[in-house]
Amino acid sequence: MANVEPQECLSVALKLVKQAGDLVRDAIKKKKNIEMKSSAVDLVTETDKAVEKLLITGLSSAFPDHKFIGEESVAGGEKCVLTDEPTWIIDPVDGTMNFVHSFPYTCISVALWVNKDAEVGIVYNPILEHMFTALKGQGAYLNDEKISASGETDLSKALVFSEMGTSHDPEKVDTVITNITTLLTKVHGCRTMGCAALHMSHVARGAADANYTMGVHCWDIAAGSLLVKEAGGVVIDTAESVPWDRAP
């Protein structure tokens, strides 16, 4: 197996993520060239592709033995397979719908998993300059300041993130609405930013108490899950196993 030094991996990845952030920051103000993937609300832009290419090119140059799972690479036909080998899991622009509409809650999510466990996590919102980072066993940080989950255990006092989803299938829409309606009667408040990685990041900093979502992919949660755990939170998969081979 390739040798891994988590701190070195974090340092290299941070430099690349900041470069990628410049691309996102510049492009969010401009007209986007938009392509549809699985549906009219499942989108990809030239920025998604450019960011993923920048990250994979830079990381593979620094760590030639490492493997990669990237959202747009998988959408382009590459297999989504997680092994024990060091693997970078990348969502180049999480919250693409937000990005398309210039809504400033979008981010770059990068994680390094080794032996099927997260070692490094980065979630960067370049519009608001929020840089979330975590190393396994060393805590979670926002702009170099240590963060902690809220510790709230009473659901009726909890501010909870949820997600409306990207499907217009009537049955799925009805399910989402039913779930959120049920949730609203049991929590202090419910919010959605339309960005899974940022939802988890803000739970890690204690700005919300929980995040509930269904149908996410590995690149949506690979970095955020480490942030939450290192901030003292808990990550639970309701299906009992993470579907790593799930394609968009």
What are the defining features of this structure?
single chain; 248 residues; alpha/beta; Fructose-1,6-Bisphosphatase, Chain A, domain 1; D-Maltodextrin-Binding Protein, domain 2; 2 domains; 7-stranded mixed β-sheet; 3-stranded parallel β-sheet; 12 strands; 22% strand; disordered C terminus
Notes on the structure:
The protein is 35% helix and 22% strand. It is an alpha/beta fold. The chain has a 7-stranded mixed beta sheet, sandwiched between helices. It has a 3-stranded parallel beta sheet with strand order 11-10-12, sandwiched between helices. A two-stranded antiparallel sheet has the order 1-2. A hairpin with a 6-residue loop joins strand 1 and strand 2 (43-45). Helix 1 (6-27) packs antiparallel against helix 2 and helix 6 runs parallel beside helix 7 (218-230). The longest helix has 22 residues, at 6-27. The model is unreliable at 242-248 (pLDDT under 50).
